[in-house]
Amino acid sequence: MALHFDLVTLFPDFFTSPLQSGLLGKALGKGIATVNFTNPRDFTTDKHRSVDDEPYGGGAGMLLKPEPLFAAVESLPMQPKREVILMTPQGQRLDQQLLAELTTYDQLVLICGHYEGVDERVREHLVTREISLGDFVLTCGEIPALTLLNGVIRLLPGTVGKEASLKADSFQVPLLDYPQYTRPAKFREWEVPAVLRSGNHQKIAEWRLAQQIQRTQARRPDLWEAWQASEGEVQE
């Protein structure tokens, strides 16, 4: 069964080009995953089709109302293993491990927030998981939802032609990727490292690991510590 995405969004047109392009477009064309759009505005009952209102107690901005969001999500057919996800800076940080976990679901419902957020009752009684791209704020929830969708579909069998390339990705193990080069061997005054042109696969592997370690130590000490800990567990 293909993984099914339900995107609850006020702006479904936002996704038109990204979902028709590149590997995503091919994956959806082959039925590796399916995507459905549901607009909360279609579930409003007032003449203005209002999806937002002022927060109780005052404050800047507007909040998404609970009624349209509940109605939109509850209109969706429910598959056996489902998550209802709100994309929010307050959520669990998205990483490669979480993307891999999400590939095991049958259905992912992604609620794309707007304005100053959503009524708290949506978080408490409708959403099953909150996910964040990081400690920053964007103009809309469609951007992180597309990021999550892309990252999950990329890991599904059949999306990437050479699945071995997935195993070499940064974050599959807690080390950053090594430097990579292609032809020409010399561009201006910069040459490809000789070891990569040597044909000695063992030395190339050793060089790449050394580069991964050096890059991770310099750029992501947190990942370096995690890798050291995992290596210690293996040796034990």
Distance between the termini: 40 Å
- Detail the poorly predicted runs: none
- Shape descriptor reads elongated
Tally of distinct domains: 2
Total of DSSP H or I helical runs spanning 4+ residues: 8
Strand content: 15-25%
Features:
236 residues, alpha/beta, Alpha/beta knot, Trp Operon Repressor, Chain A, 2 domains, five-stranded parallel beta sheet, two-stranded antiparallel sheet, 9 strands, elongated
State the gist of this model:
The protein is of the alpha/beta class and 236 residues long.
Describe this structure in words.
This protein has 236 residues and is an alpha/beta fold. It has two domains: 153 residues, 3-Layer(aba) Sandwich (Alpha/beta knot); 68 residues, tRNA(m1g37)methyltransferase, domain 2 (Trp Operon Repressor, Chain A, Orthogonal Bundle). It is 35% helix and 17% strand. It is built from eight helices and nine strands. Helix 3 crosses helix 5 and helix 7 crosses helix 8. It starts with a strand and ends with a helix.
Map the helices and strands.
Elements: E1 3-8, H1 22-29, E2 33-38, E3 52-53, E4 63-64, H2 66-74, E5 82-93, H3 96-102, E6 107-111, H4 120-125, E7 129-132, H5 142-155, H6 164-167, E8 186-187, E9 190-191, H7 201-219, H8 221-235
Parallel strand pairs: 1-2, 1-6, 5-6, 5-7
Antiparallel strand pairs: 3-4, 8-9
Helix pairs in contact: 3-5, 7-8
